[in-house]
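Course exercise 7: structure representation. Students receive a sequence record and must write out the corresponding structure in token form. The form below is the worked example handed out in class, using Beta-lactamase domain protein (203 residues). Read each field label carefully; the graders check that inputs and outputs are placed in the correct fields and that the protein name is recorded exactly as given.

STUDENT ID: A-19
EXERCISE PROTEIN: Beta-lactamase domain protein
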Amino acid sequence: MIIKLNGYGYSSNSYLLVGKKTILVDPGANHLILEELKKNGIKNIDFIINTHCHFDHSSADHLIEEEFNCPTIIEDKEVKHLKSGDKVTVSSLFGANLIPPEEIIPLSEIEEELKNYGLEILRTPGHTYGSISIIYEDGLITGDTLFAYGVGRWDLPTGSLIDLRKSISLLENVANERNINKIYPGHGEIGDKMAFNYAKLFL
Ligand SMILES: [Zn+2]
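STUDENT ANSWER:
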């Protein structure tokens, strides 16, 4: 089951993947995520996954870690940025410092294990160079790569329009092959395959 937790303010959406393990994708940027989890009766989280290192997705990692004592998984190239809160995290756009979580696991070290919990990771660079998307059950969690009605920015540090185009077409192929019709984006509403038509208007 995928449960969407709305982001407040500039916080990203958060998604709870509930199955063999309980995994929180992108805790967002403030303590309200803790209230949302409480509302949903969540008493345990096994892992945090960040779709990328941006501040609005990752700066509440440490709050979740404190509460649930769980590690944070992020694509290998993004690890150093999350640890340092450097310009790639765009924390300065939000006028804040990023407090990193203490335990960070590079994705490559745990990717096989994640398959056992029903997650398949797709590398979808373009918004940042280590952006990932996740296939889970009937859905595709796309971070800031693909939204219901558009695509993420490619002009921020490590972004690339060429990579973003390739990533969108990878996602479209996967969605078609697997008959996936639910897009769970990093911001805004849940979308469907129409998202790919909208995406092409921007690329
Ligand atoms: Zn982002």
